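Practice problem 4.
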């Protein structure tokens, strides 16, 4: 079992982050649809973290992004896009991904109302963190994706339209 420490992602060299994400998702990852969802945005520093092992090596990252679901009437509903969550292949199944998600939840605080959304494995994110596709069936992304992998986690009083397209949230 690897010992690791969670630190703010902005304390890590971006080249290390890119290298790790290439290892996990492949060098063509930037062509994926989810990159279009967050096109032109900067990750939220207060909700983005790194896992560093005892030798100072980067073994995991998580980034969060300000996005919005825009309904058919053009109304934008702000959300936080979680991901990518990347753990070095030789360090998976050691609790690093769970610790990174816990860091995001902890940083959001108890009173946070903004829904979280991600594109990921429903079994992993549903069982461990409560994400589901129950409310995302009418949502779309700007490119190809598997609908059952579009997951959301929101408080019961969160307002989320049944239909819309997910994209960057820009205050204009």
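Answer key:
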């Amino acid at each position: 079992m690897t010992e690791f420490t969670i630190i703010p992602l902005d304390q890590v060299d971006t080249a290390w982050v890119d290298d790790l994400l290439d290892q996990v998702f492949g060098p063509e990852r930037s062509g994926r649809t989810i990159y279009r969802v967050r096109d032109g945005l900067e990750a939220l520093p207060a909700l983005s973290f790194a896992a560093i092992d005892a030798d100072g090596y980067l073994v995991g990252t998580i980034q969060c992004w300000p996005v919005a679901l825009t309904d058919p009437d053009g109304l934008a509903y702000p959300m936080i896009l979680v991901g990518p969550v990347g753990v070095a292949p030789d360090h998976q199944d050691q609790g690093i991904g769970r610790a990174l998600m816990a860091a995001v939840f902890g940083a959001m605080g108890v009173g946070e109302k903004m829904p979280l959304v991600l594109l990921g494995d429903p079994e992993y994110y549903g069982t461990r963190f409560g994400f589901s596709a129950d409310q995302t069936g009418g949502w779309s992304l700007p490119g190809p994706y598997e609908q059952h992998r579009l997951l959301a986690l929101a408080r019961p009083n969160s307002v989320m339209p049944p239909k819309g397209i997910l994209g960057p949230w820009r205050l204009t």
